[in-house]
Amino acid sequence: MMHLAETLNFSGRKVVGAWASVPFPALHGSSLPDTLYAHQQDMPWKPLSSCWEPKGSCCFAQSVVLRGIHKENCIRGPGKPPPSPLHACESTEQVLQHYLHTLFPGAFSTSHVLEQPCQTLPPYPQFFSPLLTRQGFLLDRPPSHSSAAVESIPVLAALQSSPVLHTLLQGLYQDLRQLNTRRCSSFFAAGVEQDDFEEALQELRTLAQCYEMGLEADESDLDSD
Question: In the beta sheet, which residues pair with residue 161?
């Protein structure tokens, strides 16, 4: 994980955020292009890190892995014209990569699609919606009979170096800056020097600034002045 985070960071950045979709919202019987085409405006994953969800899509670099999608989930019937560029891709890997490039233009993106799903057999908790099939795909309506336990699910996971981390790191810096170190005698008794603490605090502030973009960075420079 540490080496992957280093690969995704440059220009002084060191932190990545985690995102996931558990399960990946794919309809039963639909293709991967159909699923991603339905999520052109809203990303099909939620943050696992302590950062807010962005209204727009923007990141510097990312690594995305999609599990539990079979290769045939990309193939359309013969003679049918592709309704979108996503549907014109020849493989699931190309579909996901095209989607990421469209959603995050200019970002460095790596992606992998694995057919093996995530197993959810006991003792995995069965907290899933009744709309899920045993393989974790969504149904249009609840089944007429009691459905069996979900045995596996498709999952999408991502690590991103993105501007949303600025808010997280800047908030941490502000909280630590307000800390009254005189009340933390045990903390400094452990061997931490006041100068080292102040230096680490400034490094955190500098790290937060590495995730700013455009006007936000200019306003930060004015505030620091």
Answer: 61
Answer whether residue 216 is part of any domain.
no
Alpha helix positions (H), 81-183: 92-103, 164-177
Work out the number of other CB atoms within 10 angstroms of the CB of residue 112: 13
Cα angle, residue 50 at apex, residues 108 and 5 outer, rounded to 5° = 35
Q: Quote the tokens at residue 37.
A: 């085409």
Burial class (CB in 10 A: 0-12, 13-18, 19+), 32: buried
Q: Are residues 57 and 147 in the same domain?
A: yes
pTM of the model: 0.82
Identify the CA nearest to 45 among candidates 74, 66, 72.
66
Name residue 38's amino acid.
A
In this structure, what token pair is assigned to residue 26? 């794919």
Domain range for 206 is 166-210
How many C-alpha atoms does 46 have within 13 Å on its Cβ side? 6
SS3 state of residue 37: helix
Q: Among residues 54, 56, 49, 64, which one has the least CA distance to residue 99? A: 64
| Residue 134 and residue 58 share a domain | yes
Q: 134-150 pLDDT, tens per residue? A: 999 999 887 777 667 89
3-state helix, strand, coil in the chain (%, to 5): 35, 15, 50
Domain annotation covers residue 222: no
One domain for residues 9 and 106:
yes
Which tens digit of pLDDT belongs to each residue from 171-219? 999 998 988 777 777 777 777 788 888 899 999 999 999 998 754 444 4
Domain-embedded: residue 119: yes
